[in-house]
Design brief:
The protein is of the alpha/beta class. It contains six helices and ten strands; from the N terminus they run ββαβαββααβββαβαβ. 27% of the residues lie in helices and 20% in strands.
Length: 244
């Protein structure tokens, strides 16, 4: 099913099938882009859904993907030490990065050592803008999830971050634990060449329906606001979510 020009929905029997198919697709995408550009920029998602995908990429595709040409970023981070159990960096490191041989300079975690999260957000934005120089380069692939209330990255309903039009990264305080976070914003997410949403669980059904409802606005369902005008969005959904 294709919605508009840039949103595609792919359905799978379960999370295992979804993850295997997404890994195969990512393998092809990375190989193609590296041949064209010499490098690939990937923004990783936190949460539990992408963990299996990361494990497949780090094992089945360990020797098939040119990992030394891949640069890893994060879509958001809980403002906790990188070794904390709630850290998105730690999850990705354990599930994927520890399985690969990747130059240290290719790994770009969101810093969480500043006294103020706002300073960390400013530092990460500076790094991003330095990496994506003025020639219009952008993320080749952004992996995102979605919460049952429609949040994505750490863009939550009614948050001021959803209204951001200039900053690429901001500090936010959300109604969840840990509450202090750093998140990418629409101005950089909507520059991406490709976005993959990985969605599993029946509790996401209502939010998915809102995303594809023309009367819904991004401030109440932030995942809806991710729709790059010059890129594509693919929704990878398993059968735990009914038709919408």
């Amino acid at each position: 099913m294709v919605y508009g020009l840039s949103r595609e929905v792919r359905r799978f029997a379960d999370l295992n099938e979804l993850s295997a198919s997404a890994a195969e697709d990512i393998n092809r995408l990375i190989s193609r882009v590296v041949k064209l550009k010499g490098r690939f920029s990937l923004a990783l998602s936190g949460g539990s859904t992408p963990r299996l995908l990361y494990r497949i990429l780090g094992t089945t595709y360990q020797d098939m993907i040119p990992w030394d040409a891949v640069h890893f970023f994060w879509g958001d981070e809980r403002y906790v030490p990188h070794e904390d159990k709630d850290s998105n960096y730690r999850m990705a490191r354990e599930a994927l990065l520890d399985l690969l041989t990747v130059p240290a300079g290719n790994i770009h975690p969101i810093p969480t050592t500043y006294r103020k999260p706002e300073d960390a957000a400013e530092s990460y934005e500076k790094d991003l803008r330095g990496f994506f120089d003025a020639d219009g380069d952008t993320f080749d692939l952004v992996l995102l999830g979605m919460g049952k209330e429609g949040h994505t990255a750490s863009l939550f309903p009614e948050s001021p971050a959803v209204e951001e039009t200039d900053r690429w990264t901001v500090a936010v305080e959300v109604n969840d634990k840990p509450s202090k976070r750093i998140t990418l914003t629409y101005p950089v997410l909507n520059r991406a060449a490709t976005v993959y949403f990985l969605i599993s669980g029946p509790e996401k059904a209502e939010a998915i329906a809102k995303v594809f409802d023309s009367s819904t606005y991004a401030h109440s369902c932030p995942a809806k606001g991710v729709n790059p005008p010059n890129g594509s969005v693919v929704w990878w959904i398993d059968s735990s979510i009914p038709d919408f």
